[in-house]
Design a protein that fits this description.
By secondary structure, the protein is of the alpha/beta class. It is about 25% helix and about 25% strand. The chain has 6 helices and 11 strands. The structure holds glutamine (GLN).
């Protein structure tokens, strides 16, 4: 299974994402500069965290207008997986691939610490290696992680079981404690906390591994020996 980690000017979690899929999970992966991209060869697209375009206008807004996002939309329309983490999640909402928006944290501060999340849906192709209701520890590192959508959209997210992770203790004011959502089709997933930074117990948690394991199990063809 081949992963593309898309790098925008200002991405800063791209190496962590690459490390997670390439070195920890043992998959094929490339760092792909947003302007030099032909995504046809890739099975999965990973949008990493960071400050694309310096968070100007709104986080993820400028990146969402780039040509590579058109290609990502085509990739997603084929049912192939797209995972956006943190700034990647912001790019996904800004580009309309996921509903809602990420607003400033309710305390208006950038927050950087571990949070406990609850697995709300273990039936997605991103979370099938987890148990329903399982709690996991992932780091957060964001200033704009306060997920918002209107009541109608929230109703749809609930009805379609698109809420995948919630915060046990909501740190940022997100509606319904939402930490991560999937699209209706189940192949585009965005979350604010960082699974790619929870790959080694030595660094505080390896709970992120199951997320990549799920993707590989559901979309991949080969397992590396160290998975
Ligand atoms: N780590 C990140 O991806 C940060 C995302 C975004 N720039 C924010 O502060 O909300």
């Amino acid at each position: 299974m081949k992963f593309a980690v898309i790098v925008f000017p200002g991405s800063n979690c791209d190496r962590d994402m690459y490390h997670a899929v390439k070195e920890v999970m043992g998959m094929d992966a490339d760092l792909v500069w947003y302007q030099h991209s032909n995504l046809e060869d890739y099975d999965a697209i990973l949008l990493p965290g960071g400050f694309s375009y310096g968070d100007y206008l709104r986080s993820g807004a400028v990146a969402s207008a780039s040509e590579v996002v058109q290609q990502i939309k085509e990739h997603a329309a084929k049912g192939k997986p797209v995972l956006g983490v943190c700034n990647g999640f912001q790019v996904l909402t800004e580009s309309g691939l996921l509903p809602g928006a990420l607003m400033r944290n309710k305390n208006l501060s950038f927050m950087c610490h571990h949070e406990t999340l609850v697995v709300e849906n273990d039936q997605t192709a991103f979370t099938s290696s987890y148990e329903q209701g399982e709690t996991v520890r992932f780091p957060i590192a964001h200033g704009e992680g306060n997920y918002f959508c209107d009541q109608e959209t929230l109703g749809e997210l609930k009805a379609n079981e698109q809420i995948v992770f919630t915060y046990q203790n909501n740190p940022n004011g997100s509606v319904a404690d939402i930490a991560g959502i999937v699209n209706k089709e189940g192949n585009v997933f965005g979350m604010m906390p960082h699974p790619e930074r929870a790959m080694e117990k030595l660094l505080g948690s390896d709970d992120g591994r199951k997320l990549f394991q799920s993707m590989i199990k559901n979309w991949g063809y080969t397992y590396a020996a160290n998975v």
